[in-house]
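Running this now, will post back.
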Amino acid sequence: MAREIPYIVAVNEALQFEMERDETVVFYGQDVAPSDEDPLVKAFGRDRVRVSPISETAEIGMATGLALAGFRPVVELLMAEFMLVAMNQVVNEAPRLRYMSGGQVKVPVVFKAGYGFTAGWAGQHTGSIYNMFCGIPGLKVALPSTPADAKGLLATAIRDDNPVCYFIHYLLVLEHGDVPEGEYLVPFGEASVRRTGSDVTIVATGWTVGKALQAAELLAQEGIEAEVIDPRTLQPLDLPAILSSVEKTGHLVLADQATRHASAASFIAAEVAEHGFGYLKAPVKLVTALDATIPYSQPMEAYVLPDEHKIADAARQVVGAAPVAA
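Update: finished.
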């Protein structure tokens, strides 16, 4: 049975359920459970819920070692940018070891981090850098856009025998939605059709899924029916679901909060161009952040970021209902 809860509650529910189910799951981070009154500390004790040193290199290195030793660590890294100081562990160690050992070892670690903060967080904490991790063999990338997926994807990530980057958008954490009670898993590599339509496909990731749905409502008022696809995981990517939608609509818009040339939208567009070119009746349109650092000023921030109006304008252009900008 489902009930309505906030996104962040769904995340914590998945973590607690998995820790109850499997005693090898451990959780730690720089600001994790600072008080012994924290529910996770009360439930599982300080052996399994710990405050870590202020060192991302240490946190992630410890996680890789714990995973090799038979644990399933979930590391709270707060912001995706904090992972940049430990890229050797994230990119060059954790994802490679299972392959290099011929499958003799597993590395079941979850790197949990926020991304794309915006709302006045300025340059260094507003990046949408998930695309950096999408091309690393052995590393999986999950990007939940709803409370239900926040729960289901985290549970799946914890059970996976490979390292997973689990990225949440902090502007979504207080959003409410229906979430199943008890055990709930969302398969990796299985996209969700958030809205059906026949005129244009909009593929949106993470925070931009909500913007795409708002754009679809605007377009519907004009008689344009948009189908909104949420990949949910970028690695693995459910390309067949995207191609199936594009085959039906003949038009594709990709919405992504990342900058254009470092976006998931860019590699999804490349895949469609290679495998679904014959379905397209017009060029693919990308709606991303501009290639600029996110500014502190709210009006400038809004100018740089994608929104529902920019997505709707792109859809109008690809279906021929609006003039193409020069």
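The longest helix spans residues 7-21. More later if anyone needs it.
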